Amino acid sequence: MAKILTLTLNPALDITVSLDALRPGHVNRSQGQHSHAAGKGLNVAQVLADLGHRVTVGGFLGRDNLAPFEALIAWRGFADCFIRVPGETRSNIKLVEDDGRVTDINGQGPDVDEAARTALMRRLEQMAVGHDAVVVAGSLPRGIDVQWFHGLLLQLKNQGLKIALDTSGEALRAGLQVGPWLVKPNTEELGEALGSAVQTPEQQCAAAQHLLASGVEHVVVSQGEQGVSWFTQGQVLHGRPPKVPVASTVGAGDSLVAGMVHGLLQGEPREHTLRRATAIAAQAVTQVGFGIRDRDQLARLENAVQLTEQQEGCR
Questions:
Q1: Mind spelling out the 3-state secondary structure of 254-273?
Q2: Which of 15, 213, 282, 302 is deepest in the core (most CB within 10 A)?
Q3: What is the sign of the dihedral through the CA atoms of 175, 179, 184 and 188?
């Protein structure tokens, strides 16, 4: 298996509250509550660990609420590349209704100063060596601008790592300039980054061709229950997941990224890679929390994924 680094610059303590239906302006009674040390890169790391990879995790953590994050790192056996900074890692509240709708209330993380930024760059200079790939996922915390982020990605690429990028907004635009190995936006994120609509298959093809021409090898566009489209030079493969009961959509995209990175690094056939990645994402929405918990269920979901291929790419 591979050795993979995941970077979560703005992790979060996810507090997931289950409700029958959210009634704004009224007292709401929860059906359940779960807290998880999370953040997109950490979510990806858990799935990669379940797939058998050796994982290093890094980014920035607030010193004032380290316990759940350090417990997760120890439990999973991750190598720890996080820089501790003053303050609290943010808390994100996710209100999950019975119909699957999720309302996010995302907090502010700690302010990352120059000393912490320099410390992470130096630590990565030492620890990133020997990794096969790096997954850079999530938003930027306070104190991190897009110029620094671009420099971070460039350093990692110059160290020989394949970069899988899953972010949005200005961070995605800056990251695309580095020519990542893989990008995984949803349609809204891709449209915002490129300044054009990408709702139709034709628009998605045009956007993907633009990215492929700029040096990106794999463009993976997620579309929720409509599935995922994987664009490479001259080929388009679409995976549509089966319908599943929805417990929470949190982490589905992260699970998809993990599945794609796994299949690509293992050199598996394209169809197998996308089928499993789509199934892992479908399984993620049936549970609260992250990771592959039921192998039999995953096998059933894989068999139910519908694949369609356009051999000659976009027309």
A1: HHHHHHHHHHHHHCCCHHHH
A2: 282
A3: positive
Angle at 215 between CA 56 and CA 276, to 5 degrees: 55
The encoded tokens of residue 150 equal: 């671009």
Measure the CA angle with vertex 122, ends 174 and 74; round to 5°: 95
Which two structure tokens, joined as six digits, stand for 120? Answer: 């992470």
Domain boundaries, the chain: 3-310
Catalytic pick among 14, 50, 166, 254: 254
Active site residue 254: yes
Q: Which two tokens stand for residue 41?
A: 């890169």
Give pLDDT, residue 25. Answer: 95
pLDDT in tens, 192-202: 999 988 888 88
pTM of the model: 0.93
CATH topology of domain 3-310: UDP-N-acetylmuramoyl-L-alanine:D-glutamate ligase (3.40.1190)
Amino acid at 168: S
| Cα–Cα nearest to 232, from 223, 221, 244 | 221
Quick: pLDDT tens for 122-136: 999 999 999 999 999
